[in-house]
Amino acid sequence: MQTQFFPSRTSTLYMARMFLVRTFSVLAALVLVLLALDLLGESGDVLAYPGNGDAQLWYYASLRTPQIIARFLPFSVLLGTLVTLTTLNQNSEIISLKSAGLSAHQILAPLIVASLGVAAISFAFNERVVARSTATLSRWQAVNYGPLPPGTGVLTNIWAREGDDLIHADTVSGRGEATRLSGVTVYDRTNGALSAIIRGKDAHRATGGWQLTDASRFSVATGEVETLGTVLVARGVRPDQFTLTRVDPDGLSFTELAAAVKDLKAAGRPTDALEASLWHKFSGPLSSVLMPLLGAVAGFGLARSGQLFLRAVIGMGLGFAYFVADNFALAMGNLGAYPPFLAAWAPFLLFLLIGETVLVRTEE
Fold first, then answer.
1. I want to staple 326 with a disulfide (CB 3.0 to 4.6 A). Which of 55, 228, 347, 350 is the partner?
2. Is 179 within 8 Å of 205 (Cβ atoms)?
3. Nearest to 303 by CA among 362, 364, 355
4. Per-residue pLDDT tens for 66-103?
């Protein structure tokens, strides 16, 4: 029995390279097919806006591709594991490794270490690329694929309420006291009935409310329009009612989402769903580490009857069961049925134990 954790340097590099090549080859094939299908379904909406053409379709593809990569990278790791272990098993290479005194865990070690590297790359890719592309795509879809509002971190089509009055802003930028509103409309209502509509170019935070510039007031009773110039509106509306009215965890990096959760807590608003998404920014990429363990049944197992395809199907079933459990736990976290930490980490820990149990009971 070998006492070192890894096989020989040659075997380790050979297995890791085989695993990574197959994983990223599967990922590339999945991305090409799924992006083509997505473009078929969405190209009509992109081209529906006057003036959009091929450039906008390529721009949409550039924003959508990182999302597809992030979503299907763990699936690719699972399929790459199954292909790698099936190939090694079929060529009797696993038998050779075991006859050399290596345990099942030692044989899987190169794949697990390589998947740790994939998880690190996935986390960095999500933080630096996916969050930004998701936020930009959401902003673009909010304006029906028209011209994007200038700047980053800009929210579009935001509503707030002050008593009976409703306040709408075309765009919201900044945070806290530096929040800026553009394209502001205030619907002045009395006992549920609309009495006046106040419109202005932009608004910023001022003492006692929001200072609206280039304002005009339309009276419903008389039908007359009155020029107001600069006026104070929305006296009881806080900045967070605009900036935190719609927080998309997929469009924020870990630090940005943590700041949003902190602001929401300070405002006394529920944050359980966002906290689950915050923890999932770590547990999601780490799911790649589970795939070699769950797919190990393709290379190991009690049955020696040559049913290689059946063992690969079982490994695929275990992997997909994890993704189902992960999505279910997140849904329960969003509903408040699970605590945030449990919603994000319970499936990972559960299937880690399942994978270890299967491997130990069958091979160790």
1. 347
2. yes
3. 362
4. 999 999 999 999 999 999 988 888 787 888 888 888 88
State the Cα–Cα distance between residues 348 and 345, nearest whole angstrom.
5
Angstrom distance (rounded) from CA 145 to CA 43:
10
CA atoms of 306 and 273, how far apart (whole Å): 46
Q: Are 319 and 348 in contact (CB under 8 A)?
A: no
* H-state helical runs in the chain: 9-48, 54-90, 93-99, 104-125, 131-142, 240-243, 254-266, 272-294, 308-335, 340-363
Contacts of 192 (CB under 8 A, 6+ apart): 164
Record the tokens describing residue 278, joined without a space.
Answer: 């915050």
Residues 359, 105: contact at Cβ < 8 Å?
yes
How far is residue 128's CA from residue 117's CA, in Å, rounded to a whole number?
17
**Mind listing the pLDDT tens digit for each residue in 250-299?**
888 899 888 888 877 876 777 888 899 999 999 999 999 999 998 888 77
Gap between the Cα atoms of 137 and 145, Å rounded? 9
Tokens describing residue 317: 């079933």
Q: Do the beta carbons of residue 344 and residue 327 sit within 8 Å? A: no
Structure token digits, residue 13: 């590099």
Domains and CATH numbers, the chain: 9-144+272-363 (no CATH), 157-243 (2.30.30)
Burial class (CB in 10 A: 0-12, 13-18, 19+), 212: buried
